[in-house]
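Regression test case RT-17, inverse folding.

Input:
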């Protein structure tokens, strides 16, 4: 049986969307291949290996040290920009990442005597160019087939989320040569959208395949999607980045809506699921006196997060600054839960296009439009006349990770 090695920078304990997506890909491919899913753990892994059929999970604990502990403290305190600068400085002087999965996998290889071969396939996913570099190194050493996966456009295209101009310049300046090297030797390149595909150098675009983000079909019980007639729940899923809070039009509109129509907290709730690490979000909520209306939770397992979405009346996005090419996993999850989606400030990009394509909700340009949309939706909800956007089983499958993974499996089979 052919083997596939899938590498993830993030581990299970982070509840990162990227990790959940790669785990889902690993589970799907394990139906046809022996899959070794290797991922980094910032905490000590309780079990060194987990076997389920053809899937072998290998959590590797990152070596702890002085810089690791500083980085972890910065992240835990919500200071992500200084943490990124620490990563960049360490990479510049040491030539490797603080959390180096390649180093940990090399230790694992020596301890287990595992050998790779030309028949094996390596699947490495960005973000973290170190993971792509690991894929390149394994291909050079063993002659494996190499699949480069991009959830973000690497050094090409828009400035990474919460990178400032200096950090973005350094990233492009010092990582571009290695990224081009990796692209040149890849046997398959996949990314999540046509927009990101078009950010790559033109010579590579014809060979890049699009495998979209998707929601986890296996984790949703569609029978539990319900209407909550007494309380209108406006829900955001996932991390809120500082870049998304540069424009506070949405929060101004909420405050005006509440004051204008004297809306009480029991009738309107603003929920942020998995957004607790954002200190700036809490400051903005406090700035507009929205604390009685707002509930913010920590990150949690995806099935638990989904359980928070069943009683939502409406979902919403916060655009990513001036970036137009970002289409997050949450968009597919919102579409799957079949409640209207609010884009309070138009991104004039992928989010707008997706909402229009699926006739999925409302795109606003200013405070007045936000207030009008929400007032009408709240009134309809309280009258027992909520909006639900029914989707066919075929459409729901196409939007799912499982539907997209079927396309990926076909591409890998051709290797």
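Golden output:
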């Amino acid at each position: 049986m052919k083997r596939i090695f899938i590498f993830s920078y993030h581990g299970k304990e982070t509840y990162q969307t990227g990790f959940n997506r790669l785990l889902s890909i690993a589970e799907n491919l394990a139906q046809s291949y022996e899959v070794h899913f290797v991922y980094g753990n910032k905490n000590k892994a309780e079990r060194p290996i987990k076997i389920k059929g053809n899937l072998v999970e290998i959590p590797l604990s990152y070596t702890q040290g002085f810089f690791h502990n500083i980085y972890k403290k910065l992240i835990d305190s919500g200071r992500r920009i200084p943490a990124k600068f620490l990563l960049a400085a360490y990479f510049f002087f040491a030539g490797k990442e603080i959390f180096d999965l390649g180093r940990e996998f090399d230790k694992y290889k020596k301890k287990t005597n595992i050998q790779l071969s030309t028949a094996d396939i390596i699947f490495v996913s960005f973000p973290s160019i170190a993971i792509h570099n690991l894929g390149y190194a394994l291909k050079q050493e063993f002659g494996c087939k190499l699949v480069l996966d991009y959830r973000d456009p690497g050094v090409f295209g828009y400035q990474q989320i919460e990178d400032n101009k200096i950090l973005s310049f350094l990233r492009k300046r010092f990582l571009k040569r290695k990224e081009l090297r990796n692209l040149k030797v890849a046997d398959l390149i996949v990314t999540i959208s046509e927009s990101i595909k078009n950010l790559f150098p033109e010579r590579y675009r014809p060979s890049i395949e699009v495998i979209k983000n998707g929601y986890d079909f296996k984790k949703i019980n569609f029978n539990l999607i319900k209407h909550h007639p007494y309380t209108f729940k406006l829900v955001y899923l996932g991390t809120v980045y500082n870049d998304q809070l540069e424009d506070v039009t949405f929060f101004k509109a909420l405050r005006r809506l509440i004051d204008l129509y004297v809306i009480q907290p029991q009738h309107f709730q603003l929920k942020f699921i998995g957004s607790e690490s954002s200190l700036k979000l809490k400051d903005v909520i406090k700035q507009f006196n929205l604390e009685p209306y707002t509930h913010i939770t920590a990150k949690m397992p995806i099935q638990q997060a989904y359980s928070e979405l069943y009683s939502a009346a409406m979902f919403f996005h916060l655009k990513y600054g001036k970036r137009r090419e970002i289409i997050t996993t949450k968009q597919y999850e919102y579409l799957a839960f079949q409640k209207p989606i609010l884009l309070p400030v138009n991104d004039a990009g992928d989010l707008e296009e997706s909402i229009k394509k699926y006739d999925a909700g409302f795109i606003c340009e200013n405070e007045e439009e936000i207030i009008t949309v929400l007032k009408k939706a709240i009134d309809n909800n309280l009258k027992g006349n909520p909006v639900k956007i029914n989707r066919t089983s075929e459409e729901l499958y196409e939007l799912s990770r499982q539907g997209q993974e079927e396309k990926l499996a076909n591409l890998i089979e051709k290797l």
